[in-house]
């Protein structure tokens, strides 16, 4: 039996040597659950969203409650745009009796037509003004704030 055992071991060793050269087959593994692929995370948070830097400020909130909030004082002090701003200049033009033509605003502010139209639709609405738009006798687009 010693001879048989010896031949078995040499055969096993020979088979093992042959098998060592070939890479063993890998069994397919189950994939782990991956995160949902949404939009990439931005470094800057969206408007009004809290950021990581805002978290430590919670401790300081208690001290701010005693002081006036900046929003409250801001609304009490100003009834319109700040003096000297582009918004203030345009509002002054629009408050005239006949308002201002789009060309006048373009010339004074150095804007293009699309900028003036966007300003009337966006910034003026955000500031709380109701802008009236009409065409003059000459056919020019004119804007006016009704008082």
Quick structural gist:
It is built from seven helices and three strands, in the order ααααβαααββ.
How would you characterize this protein structure?
The chain is mainly α and 147 residues long. It has a domain at 81-147: Arc Repressor Mutant, subunit A (Orthogonal Bundle). Helices cover 44% and strands 8% of the residues. It has helices at 2-21, 61-66, 70-77, 86-94, 102-109, 113-121, 123-126; strands at residues 100-101, 131-135, 141-145. It has a three-stranded antiparallel beta sheet. A hairpin with a 5-residue loop joins strand 2 and strand 3. The longest helix has 20 residues, at 2-21. The N and C termini lie far apart (117 Å). Mean pLDDT is 74; it is low at 72-77.
Number of strands: 3
- What is the CATH level 1 assignment of the domain at 81-147? Mainly Alpha
Our count of helices gives 7
Q: Strand-and-helix sequence, N→C?
A: HHHHEHHHEE
Largest sheet: 3 strands, antiparallel
Stated plainly, the CATH topology of the domain at 81-147 is called Arc Repressor Mutant, subunit A
Q: Catalogue the unreliable spans.
A: 72-77
The CATH architecture of the domain at 81-147 can be named as Orthogonal Bundle
Strand order of the largest sheet: 1-3-2
Structural class label: mainly alpha
